[in-house]
Write a structure and sequence with these properties.
The chain has 154 residues and is mainly beta. It is built from 5 helices and 10 strands, in the order βββββαβββαββααα. It has one domain: Beta Barrel (OB fold (Dihydrolipoamide Acetyltransferase, E2P)).
Length: 154
């Protein structure tokens, strides 16, 4: 018997995405971002979560090629594993429990962009992509600027 999969549903800019909860160590907020000079445009800086320094990536800039610069509260999805990397998002919407059969393949022609997603799921009257943070962490950040994710996330 297959076990259900829990997804964190979140918002980046105007887009709704999900990530498998197994890829996320915790969700946090932080009031201070420490900038790092001369790094990729996707790196916002470092954040300190209970004495541990995490590299913070701008998911909106990676996926949508823009950054909102809003002063509203941001959330940080801290990844599991040895890499201390967090992805910034605008809102945590829900924890969604799905059965594996509810996850569909992404139907898109852009094979390069599809590798960063594990599928898509129906949520709140729309189809949302399920992002794979581990695949992002295995990719050179500079290469991400060349990938068009628009076909998948919109």
């Amino acid at each position: 018997m297959k076990t259900n999969i829990e997804l964190i549903v979140f918002r980046v800019g105007e887009e709704i995405l999900a990530v498998n909860i197994k890829e996320v160590k915790e969700v946090s907020t932080s009031s201070r971002i420490y900038p790092i000079p001369k790094v990729s445009e996707f790196i916002l800086g470092n954040i300190n979560i209970r004495g541990t320094v995490w590299l913070l990536l701008d998911l909106e800039k990676i996926l949508l090629k823009k950054s909102s610069k809003s002063s509203s509260k941001k959330y940080y999805l801290l990844t599991k594993g040895d890499n201390k990397v967090a992805f910034q998002c605008d809102e945590i919407i829900d924890i969604l429990e799905v059965i594996p059969g509810e996850i569909q393949k992404i139907e898109a022609d852009n094979e390069e962009a599809k590798q960063f997603f594990t599928g898509q799921v129906y949520y709140d009257n729309r189809i949302i992509p399920i992002i794979s943070f581990s695949n992002f962490l295995e990719t050179d950040l500079d290469k991400l600027s060349e990938i068009n994710f628009e076909e998948i996330i919109r």
